[in-house]
Specification:
Number of domains: 2
CATH topology of the largest domain: Alpha-D-Glucose-1,6-Bisphosphate, Chain A, domain 4
Radius of gyration: 25 Å
Strand order of the largest sheet: 1-7-6-5-4-3-2
Shape: elongated
Largest sheet: 7 strands, antiparallel
CATH class of the largest domain: Alpha Beta
Distance between the termini: 38 Å
Order of helices and strands: EHHEEEEEEHEHHEEEEEEH
CATH superfamily of the largest domain: START domain
């Protein structure tokens, strides 16, 4: 379980009384269709007191079909509606009178603890959420005031870089640690099968094939060492996208070993998979670093 990102909050003043805005938000069909872009709302259930009201929202975001069901968990007349989605996001609509109008705040957050299998979907949400929630609030204002949406399409931002990094202190000389970890079977760990290893004399140009499984799904990619500075660092570029940097540095008579993986997903479907892989690998990477430390300190494999 991991804490998720900080909540997003967007505020807008609407030229309509609180009762009008609250009535608009009481029907999930209205605010769900206020999201920028094309979407559809089905399976609508509206309860007399609001709590338990639910609806299913579906849309295609950058080629990825997404579908969630929202349910109203808290409804305070003319003040607040809290809607929880099955896939994680919680939307809180807060209303306050401002003269003859209304100040609407929309907050998007996530559960403090989230099952691992939902991490990829939340990664998608957090990457387009800021612009999307801003567009939602602008459209609610426009729909209440004029009956028309003002933001028609979401901004198509590129995916952010996804990163994993870790480090460990090793009671062994830099040369010993580097000569150990330059072997891909060591720095990628026992869960990754290495084949077709071709070692270039200068390090740069070394290639190999790595294969492993995620949730039982076989994955395979080729690697190439694109940088290689003996007893300092090397960089390995994977055909599937990730760039790995393995570096050593002197530390208190021993060595500080650091490892980093960066990937910029080509699309939002890749972002979902990459987020899951990074999330699942966090624990195993800690074990991997501990294993390398033990081997180096024992002189194993040298």
């Amino acid at each position: 379980m991991e804490a998720m990102v900080e909540n997003l909050v967007k505020t807008m003043e609407i030229n309509a009384p609180v009762d009008t805005v609250f009535t608009f938000l009481s029907d999930p069909t209205r605010w769900m269709l206020a999201f920028p872009g094309d979407s559809e709302v089905t399976d609508v259930l509206i309860t007399p007191d609001g709590v338990g009201t639910s609806a299913k929202w579906a849309a295609k975001i950058f080629g990825v079909h997404m579908s969630v069901t929202h349910e109203y968990r808290e409804v305070v007349h003319n003040q607040r509606i809290v809607s929880k989605a099955t896939a994680g996001p919680v939307l809180t609509f807060s209303l306050a009178p401002q003269g003859a109008g209304t100040v609407l705040s929309v907050e998007q957050g996530f559960d403090i603890e989230t099952p691992l299998v939902r991490v990829p979907l939340q990664a998608l949400f957090t990457r387009w959420a800021e612009d999307d929630i801003e567009g939602l609030v602008a459209n609610i204002k426009s729909l209440v005031e004029t009956g028309q949406k003002t933001v028609l399409e979401p901004e198509k931002r590129l995916a952010h870089t996804l990163t994993w990094s870790g480090a460990v202190s090793i009671h062994a000389p830099v040369e010993r640690v580097f000569d150990l970890v330059k072997d891909p079977a060591v720095w990628l760990g026992p869960d990754v099968r290495i084949s077709d290893l071709r070692v270039a004399p200068e390090g740069v140009g070394t290639t190999f094939e790595a294969s492993w499984r995620v949730l039982g799904i076989p994955l395979r990619t080729t690697h190439e060492y694109t940088e290689f500075v003996p007893h300092d660092h090397f960089t390995s570029k994977a055909a599937l996208g990730p760039v790995f940097v393995v570096a050593v540095a002197p530390e208190d008579g021993g060595t500080r070993l650091s490892m980093r993986s960066d990937v910029v997903p080509a699309n939002w479907a890749d972002a979902a998979v990459d987020s899951l892989v990074i999330k699942m690998s966090e624990g195993s990477q800690e074990e991997l670093l501990a294993g390398i430390k033990a081997k180096a300190e024992a002189g194993a494999g040298l």
